[in-house]
Structures are given as C-alpha cells and as structure tokens.
Amino acid sequence: MINPVELAGFVLSLAMVYCNIKEIHWGWPLAILSALLYGFVFWNSQLYGEACLQIMFILTAAWGWQQWLRGNTPQSANAQAIEGSAPLAPAKLSVSTLATSERRVAFIATLLAWPAFSFFLYRFTDSDVAIWDGLVTALSLLGQYLLGRKKIENWWVWMLVNVLTVGLMAEKSLWLTAVLYGIFAVLSYIGLQTWRRHAQ
Length: 200
Description:
Helix content: over 70%
Low-confidence stretches: 73-82
Radius of gyration: 18 Å
Number of strands: 0
Largest sheet: none
Mean pLDDT: 87
C-alpha cells in the first residue's frame, strides 16, 4: 500500500525538479514542502541521515530561493551609490561553471563531511546504513548549494546522489521513492543538457 505522505512528496518533488530545470524560482518553495513530507517518511524508515537532510534542504531551499530572486548585484552599484546616483538593479543570477579552485574546495569539503555524517549516524542512531546514508547526505548538501548558485556541476552531483539513493530506498522497501529517484537521475541528465545550452 502506498503511503499518502510519500505519494504527495513524490508529486511535489517532480514539480520541483521541473521548475529547477526551467530556472523557475517556484521550485524552491516546492522543495520546502516536499522536504517536510519526506522528513516524516525517512524518519519512520530509520533513514535518519536522510530525515535530518530534509531539515537542511528546507534551510538551503530558503537560501536558494533568495539567491534566485535577488540575483547578482553589480559591483558598479556601490560606486554609483557613493556618487549619489541610483544603484543598478540586481542582475539575474545566470548559469555558470565552477572554477578549478572551487571544484577542489567542493571535493575536499565533501570528503570531510562524508565520514563526519557517517560517524554521527553510526554513533547516535540505530541506522543500519550509516556509511551509505552519510555519503548521500554529504553529496546532497553539495548539490543543493551548487543549485542555489546556478552552477552546472550541480546536475552531475544530483545524478550521483539519485543513483545512490535508488539503492538506498530499495534497501528500505520505499519502492515509490526508489522510482522517484530513478526519474530524478534521468531528469538530472536533462537538466545538465538544458543548463549547458543556457550557459552557451
């Protein structure tokens, strides 16, 4: 029998990813709603890392929504303000790629976060998939940050997260959610190609 809370999260999550691909900012409030629903689903399935991750998703979704709405404030705006003229309106946050140094920092941060999350889950919860859950948690936070900054690399991260999560959900017999993340993996590839065209 399908859990109605899981089903609602399923529908909202698909709508969220569609908005993300199309660069529609309403994907962020949808992310908040789906995270609330999946928080309950994961907690009841002893996926504590995934459940706690939903709290982080809510916080980072609020941040990402603000990033997409605010955009980038031109550097010349401050100079104009000093000179007494009206500042320029914020420019739309555009799709871009990470610099080499940024990729290095992201990689190191994820390598540090993974064992930290895994240790926490192993030490303070009864999770039986602590290492796996910790890896998905670390990668998901990275993906959410990159998405908030409209970095193309977010889609590569989400592809990896989604493939790993399919197995994790299957292990916990959350079959509808396993299907959802399989769809997410395909949508992540579509998102990657779409954002590449936008960047060009």
